Amino acid sequence: MVLCRLFICKRTTLFLIVDEAMLNSLYVQLFVLENYDERFFEPISLEAYAKVYKLKI
Description:
It is built from 2 helices and 4 strands. It is of the alpha+beta class. The strands form 2 sheets. The chain has a two-stranded antiparallel sheet with strand order 1-2. The protein has a two-stranded antiparallel sheet with strand order 3-4. A hairpin with a 4-residue loop joins strand 3 and strand 4 (51-55). The longest helix has 7 residues, at 26-32. The chain starts with a strand and ends with a strand.
């Protein structure tokens, strides 16, 4: 059995159903959840339809 999660974004009316592998991907962490490691990423723009991060290395 594969466990999936449902995410609903109120600002864009977007919904995603993702499995554990997709949930842990950098794309979902940065662009959907805005969950980033401050040691490596600096948010430049966090708009509803586009996000820009600066890599600090």
